[in-house]
Design goal:
With 306 residues, the protein is of the alpha/beta class. It has eleven helices and eight strands.
Amino acid sequence: MAALGWLTPRRRSATARSVLAGEASAEAARKSARNTPEPETAEPEFPVLGDDRAAAFFDLDNTVMQGAALFHFGRGLYKRKFFETRDLVKFAWQQAWFRLAGVEDPEHMQDARDSALSIVKGHRVAELETIGEEIYDEYMAGRIWPGTRALAQAHLDAGQKVWLVTAAPVEIAQVIARRLGLTGALGTVAESVDGVYTGRLVGEPLHGPAKAEAVRALAAAEGLDLSRCAAYSDSHNDIPMLSLVGHPYAINPDAKLRKHARDKDWRLRDYRTGRKAAKVGIPAAAGVGAVAGGTAAAIALTRRRR
């Protein structure tokens, strides 16, 4: 049995060195525990079920729908002989230049706005609404981003209201909102008298800061708490609107918005690549054709055929 003596524990008092070794080991264990990453906790559920003081605001162009609503609407108007090919080409080129150069010439923009209004002047609001329904089926229904549509549905399923917020004419925006089952839409309002367009705007196009003001006004009227609301957009022009809410999302963002979202730690979703990312920017090229189209028909609502 002597050979097995090494298995038998020996009783002996701790020396100063052994105490030091034990203390050092214990301290090392504590340090290791402190440096061990905490398990990731799941994000709080959002949207919050039953929070009726929360709502969601979605930009339309390139956020909910691929391309610009006015471009698709313009295609439908062109098909219906509202304006000539040369007008569409001219405006498409202007929009492409604006987007590539990053500069919007005030005179060109004023011309674009005036032209867009001239095409609807004298037409009945009901006529444009009916055409909008047809054009949605022809050109828009198949261009809705499924990912963004799912985000909107999540808010609806949570019992919250969901609005589109767009520079497109409110009549077009309302058609799209209704077809998607959303609550409603905020859009640019063209003046009408007795149901006929006058060729003037009420205020200005719902763009940039104007969107933020519209959301603020609607929130006040609806009794919403903006810190509990969400907003979704692809464009840096909508930073004022996104900054209003407690839950801003960058969807298919342009370069400026992607950078801003990173700096502010906003959530990001990019459906152009078929990928979903949170708080991470994913570069994606936008086709110049779609870019050009965006205003091509904003202004494609433009010249009445002579």
